[in-house]
Design a protein that fits this description.
By secondary structure, this protein is mainly beta. It is built from 2 helices and 8 strands, in the order βαββββββαβ. The chain is globular and about 40 Å long.
Length: 128
């Protein structure tokens, strides 16, 4: 496991890419972007990115081995248009984002069979 929680990171650290990790915890940092090469993280099963000002791109590509993705309290505002990878994803936490229950159907089409956690109603106030 790699844990760099509360490390004041504003970019993805090189150590993430230098070896295979089963679990990566980057919660409570200052990460703003979803890296294009994240699908290169072969072997990662758990990715925790909660409480970062991160949003995801329109085309979301993820690791095929990922089972749990924690994006709780991030700045995610839209449902991606295209999702690739994520074949093993079982659980997606999107609570306290700008997405709420009104987005569930669209998310379930992109992530079929995945348990998706959403907040009932979006407060839609700037987080940062």
């Amino acid at each position: 496991s790699l844990s760099m929680r509360k490390s004041h990171l504003d970019h993805w650290p090189a150590i993430v890419w230098e070896q295979e990790w089963n679990e990566i915890d980057l919660r409570k940092n200052k990460l703003e972007s979803w890296p294009d090469s994240i699908n290169a993280l072969t072997g990662v099963a758990v990715l925790r990115l909660a409480q970062n000002p991160i949003d995801w791109p329109d085309t979301l590509i993820g690791p095929s081995t990922l089972r749990y993705l924690d994006l709780w309290d991030t700045d995610i505002t839209t449902v991606p248009k295209v999702v690739q990878g994520f074949e093993s994803l079982e659980e997606l936490d999107l609570r306290e984002t700008y997405l709420d229950e009104s987005h569930r159907e669209a998310l379930e089409r992109l992530f079929p069979g995945v348990k998706i956690h959403l907040t009932p109603r979006c407060n839609c106030l700037p987080k940062r």
